[in-house]
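Researcher: Here's the sequence for the chain we discussed earlier.
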Amino acid sequence: MDIAFGVEARRLAKRWPKRLRLCRHDVTGIVDWLAKHRSLPPAELLSRPVLPQLDIPPGWVASVNCLTQLPLLPLNYLAGRIVDESALEAFGRALVQGHLHWLQAWRVPICLVTEVEDRQFDRDGVLTSGTDYRALLQGFTTDAARIGRWPWLIHPPGELADGRHESRIVEAWCL
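Model: Thanks. This is the structure I predict for it:
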């Protein structure tokens, strides 16, 4: 389930039609709102998860993405129209929270795999900056169990200017 599918996903679904079905669905419910209103939506829109109508309900649901990436396109779309940075930031957080509420609304076992921290290093491997995103998961992780944690090297040494490199810490949670 996603808002869009790449060529490879469509190819696999065609190859195994009885085992894999692609379901287009805007999990946040925000795309139609933005297309019509071009403004920040009311808070209640993001707090009401919209589950798709499926022929066969899932036995479990997994969200495997970078939660911090979810609001980027909607925020970019609104950036020229909304000048209040705090309102845009609150909207971005609400999109992430809306996604987590959507997961919990399934009432089946769920798994969340997402980044929880980013880290930037200088050419000598010294940590120069980082951002901890765990606060975005508050409420979700209270009832969930972390089942894994690993580093994800986004930009290896030498890929960024001046020998800098960047990594993420990814965690997997089950509820």
